[in-house]
């Protein structure tokens, strides 16, 4: 917009000089109309022209000014692009046109035309430089935003990796504690229970019968409590992602992919179910599929857990009586009020959906 207003201002000054020099006549009107067509037509298409084409147009305009000296009064309008290469090489033709016009214009008018030409060239140069700086600034801004996004993504991945390491270390520590409780405290309690039982067997003092019985009950209760705690620790220490990844690492003949998007708090029955289904499906694919690609997706949604297993095998024969493997999978899914879908379009695809809330209660609590 500023460029258009500046050119309109230069055009108005040139029109005033034209009318002042030649008065209002048919010729002056023709010169003005011709200038409007050439100057503003060039302005509209300049950005779409190659440098060579723009140079040829300016050379033609300057030659026309040499042939019609009266057009020199509008020469400032055509000097806007003279700061560019190779358009600047046409400047001598413009200078020649001014020299040839000395018979048509006064010295003052020619000096004003030269000043306007220089101003137009300077404005064109500054406009080009500002446009270049604007593009560079835009590029730097885009690059900065891209780098910022990449940095944020890198930080997010680092934090996720750190969380995974902490989670894995926590699981290992739970396993270690469970083993130590089982191997040490559990064995000592078992030995104590056996010793109390032996004492009860050989005891002949009625006064010791009830205390020994109470002691045996206390030890049995402690043993059951430890067993329950050890089992809970073991269940919580199951790393479902690592377990399924290990299964995929053990198979050959398939290009495998595994996408895992689950929180760290997954009920143990869900873990056992999904791991068992994945193991059964991987075994079936290895035994029966003629494909070479196997993908597994496990994702947690707000209301349900999703497991999708797909291989690109084409030799698929589903019968009315499913095999033991598919029967086991269906029973596991149904036991958790889930749904199982099997499709054979573009390979064998198994889709499992297990809701987070069931009639048995909220497993996510």
From TrEMBL:
Transmembrane domains' residue ranges: 6-22, 29-46, 52-80, 109-128
GO cellular component terms, semicolon-separated: membrane
Record's keyword annotation contains Transmembrane helix: yes
Alphabetized GO MF terms: ATP binding; phosphorelay sensor kinase activity; protein dimerization activity
Histidine kinase/HSP90-like ATPase domain location: 275-356
CDD domains for this protein: HATPase_UhpB-NarQ-NarX-like (cd16917)
Leader peptide range in chain numbering: none
Entry keywords, A to Z: ATP-binding, Kinase, Membrane, Nucleotide-binding, Phosphoprotein, Transferase, Transmembrane, Transmembrane helix, Two-component regulatory system
Highest taxon in the source lineage: Bacteria
Enzyme Commission number(s) of this protein: 2.7.13.3
Matches recorded under InterPro entries: HATPase_C_sf (IPR036890), HATPase_dom (IPR003594), Sensor_HK_TwoCompSys (IPR050482), Sig_transdc_His_kin_sub3_dim/P (IPR011712)
Reactions it catalyzes: ATP + protein L-histidine = ADP + protein N-phospho-L-histidine
Record-annotated Signal transduction histidine kinase subgroup 3 dimerisation and phosphoacceptor domain positions: 173-235
PANTHER family: NITRATE/NITRITE SENSOR PROTEIN NARX-RELATED (PTHR24421), NITRATE_NITRITE SENSOR PROTEIN NARQ (PTHR24421:SF10)
Name by which UniProt lists this protein: histidine kinase
């Amino acid at each position: 917009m500023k460029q258009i207003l500046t050119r309109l201002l230069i055009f108005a000054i040139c029109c005033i000089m034209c009318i002042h020099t030649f008065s209002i006549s048919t010729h002056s009107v023709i010169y003005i109309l011709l200038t409007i067509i050439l100057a503003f037509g060039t302005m509209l298409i300049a950005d779409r022209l190659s440098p060579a084409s723009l140079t040829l147009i300016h050379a033609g305009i300057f030659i026309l000014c040499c042939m019609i000296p009266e057009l020199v009064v509008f020469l400032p309008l055509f000097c806007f692009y003279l700061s560019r290469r190779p358009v600047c090489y046409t400047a001598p033709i413009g200078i020649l046109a001014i020299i040839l016009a000395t018979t048509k214009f006064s010295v003052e008018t020619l000096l004003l035309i030269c000043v306007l030409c220089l101003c137009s060239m300077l404005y064109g140069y500054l406009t080009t430089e500002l446009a270049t700086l604007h593009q560079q600034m835009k590029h730097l801004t885009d690059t900065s935003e891209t780098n910022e996004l990449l940095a944020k993504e890198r930080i997010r991945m680092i934090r996720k990796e750190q969380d995974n390491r902490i989670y894995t270390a926590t699981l290992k520590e739970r396993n270690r504690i469970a083993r130590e409780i089982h191997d040490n405290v559990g064995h000592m309690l078992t030995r104590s229970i056996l010793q109390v039982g032996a004492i009860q067997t050989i005891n002949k003092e009625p006064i010791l019968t009830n205390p020994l019985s109470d002691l045996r009950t206390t030890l049995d209760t402690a043993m059951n409590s430890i067993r329950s705690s050890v089992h809970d620790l073991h269940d919580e220490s199951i790393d479902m992602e690592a377990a399924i990844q290990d299964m995929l690492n053990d198979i050959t003949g398939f290009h495998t992919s595994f996408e895992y998007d689950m929180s760290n708090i997954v009920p143990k029955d869900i873990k056992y179910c999904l791991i068992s289904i994945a193991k059964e499906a991987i075994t079936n694919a290895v035994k029966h599929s003629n494909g070479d690609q196997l993908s597994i997706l496990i994702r947690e949604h707000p209301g349900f857990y999703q497991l999708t297993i797909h291989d690109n095998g084409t030799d698929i024969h589903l019968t009315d009586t499913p095999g033991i493997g598919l029967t086991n999978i269906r029973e596991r899914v149904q036991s958790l009020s889930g749904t199982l879908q099997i499709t054979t379009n573009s390979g064998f695809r198994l889709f499992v959906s297990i809701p987070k809330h069931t009639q048995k209660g909220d497993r996510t609590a």
